[in-house]
Amino acid sequence: MTVPEGGSGPEPAGIVSRGVAAVLDVLVLVAACFAVQAGVGCVRLLVTGPPFRFPEPSLWLSGLSGWVLAVLYLACSWAAIGRTAGDRLMGLRVTDRAGARLGLPRSLLRAALCVTFPLGLVWIPFSRRRAALQDLVVVSAVRYDWR
Predict the structure, then answer these.
(1) Which range marks the domain in which residue 118 is found?
(2) 26 pLDDT exceeds 90?
(3) Gap between the Cα atoms of 31 and 33, Å rounded
(4) Which pLDDT tens digit goes with each residue over 77-127?
(5) How far apart are CA 111 and CA 113, in angstroms?
(6) Which residues are bridge partners to 142 per DSSP?
(7) How far apart are CA 139 and CA 131, in angstroms?
(8) Are strands 140-144 and 92-96 parallel, antiparallel or unpaired?
C-alpha cells in the first residue's frame, strides 16, 4: 500500500467511492449472468436443436444463482487480489485493519454480508474509521490504493 506524504497510512474510502464501485460490480455481475444464460442456451441448442432460446429458470433459482455468483465474484476477488473490477476503477482495496489480504474465509463472510445486506454501507458516514457494518463484523477496511 502507498502511504501519503505526512500520513500514517492510506485513507479509508468513503461512501460515494464505495457506492460507485458497488454499482460497477453490479454491472459486471449482470453481464456475467447474461453470459451464463447465453451459454446454457447455446448448450441447449447443440443438444436439442433449433430454435435458440434463453433459459427461463424459476424466480427462486434465478435469485439463488445470482446470489451465489455475486458472493463468489466478490470473495474470490478480495481473497486473491484485494479488489474487484469496480474497486480497481475507483482505486480501492479491501484488506484487514493491518493492510493484509483478508483470506478466503473472511472474504466469503464479507461477500455474503455485502450481498445479503447491501444497506450496511449506510453506516459509513457515521463511523469514525469509515467502516460499513460488514467491515465491523469481519474486521476489514476499504482504503484508497491507486497502485
Answers:
(1) 15-144
(2) yes
(3) 6
(4) 999 999 999 999 999 999 998 888 999 999 999 999 999 999 999 999 998
(5) 5
(6) 94
(7) 9
(8) antiparallel
Other C-beta atoms closer than 10 Å to the C-beta of 42 total 11
pTM of the model: 0.85
Q: Which of 8-12, 49-53, 111-115 has the lowest mean pLDDT?
A: 8-12
CA pseudo-torsion sign 1, 144, 74, 95: positive
Q: Is 143 helix (H, G, I), strand (E, B) or coil?
A: strand
CB 74 within 8 A of CB 118: no
Does residue 5 form part of some domain?
Answer: no
Domain count for the chain: 1
**7 lies in a domain?**
no
User: Per the structure block, which three cell numbers stand in for 67?
Assistant: 446470489
